[in-house]
Amino acid sequence: MQTIDWDLAVATGVRLARPGPQVSLADARQAVRELRELSVTAQRHVREFTRMESLEEAGSAEIVDRPGWIRANVEGFRVVLEPLLKRMQGNRGDSAPNALTSFAASVGSRVTGVQLGGVLAYLSGRVLGQYELFLPPDPDGKAPTGRLTLVAPNIVMVERDLKVDPHDFRLWVCLHEETHRTQFTAVPWLRPYVQEQMGEFILASDLDPAAFMDRLRDITDTVADAVRGEGDSGSNLITAIQSPAQREILDRLTAVMSLVEGHGDYVMDAVGPGVVPTVATIRARFQQRRQATTRFDRAIRQLLGVDLKMKQYAEGAAFVRHVVAAAGMDGFNQVWSSPATLPSREEIQQPHRWVARVIGPAGELPAANA
């Protein structure tokens, strides 16, 4: 069963991706070289501040352009989705397809491939970096289990738009992204936990694979309605494919992603003043840029749930600040002890409840040390 034409997704995304900023060859090489160096510098700052030690050797980040980011993300989607959709099909005991259903599946896979490519083309112009959790397995078991990528043209574009110091902005971005690499390489159970929750979310769908893919293909109509200002203003891609049984799982995923993103923001801004002289200017201008969007951007952000994510990440950063202030960095780091010590969605919003559950009464808190 082929549910998505992955090659077409890549081809569509690369074709639709907008070109990056005009940069001379010398400036491009300098940006790539500096980003690699700063990613290593950021590792040291992040690990000293968070007191988290990676269990894997971590070299410099992988520096990519927009097509490179698209290819990496299609591969990540494929690693996660393909085996799960096959399991969905098997769980429902689908009979052997006939020629008609095979033709329909082929057409559907191409439509979905085009749509996935279109979404990734849009995002490829906005993502500054990411830690790739889902890589194809290495037969020799020697390759790292994840990969940190920085999208050089986007970083250069944003630093120009904001009119900020390039070196400072690049280090600021690296601090955030290196925090994610540290989280997932210092906490061995975190990656499989996230993958397990994602798998449970998809397998808990009350749809068969064909209906599931039909929901995904509704993205085209949803985008068009949003751009015209029509349709349900509260709809987004996640709620479109969600069944009632998936809500509890989604709450767990939301909580853990709010935690890791909020932790990244907290570390970025806490370390920043000591190593990024213009951090206050960068943060202020970055926030202004984030809020100034076009109507089309707002439609896409709504569809993908980006605005909801921004709110959740802000809550995650507030959670980290509260816990570190109350219990110190060592107290906060108890969050990484096991899945049982992760905050719930309610605890993200009310961090004192997490402190009471995991740390204990206020009289037993360690002195704040961060």
TrEMBL record:
GO terms for molecular function: hydrolase activity. The keyword Hydrolase applies. InterPro entries: CHP03883_F420-assoc, Zinicin_2, Zinicin_2_N. Keywords: Hydrolase. It comes from the Bacteria. This is Putative hydrolase/coenzyme F420 biosynthesis associated uncharacterized protein. It comes from Allonocardiopsis opalescens. The lineage of its organism: Bacteria, Bacillati, Actinomycetota, Actinomycetes, Streptosporangiales.
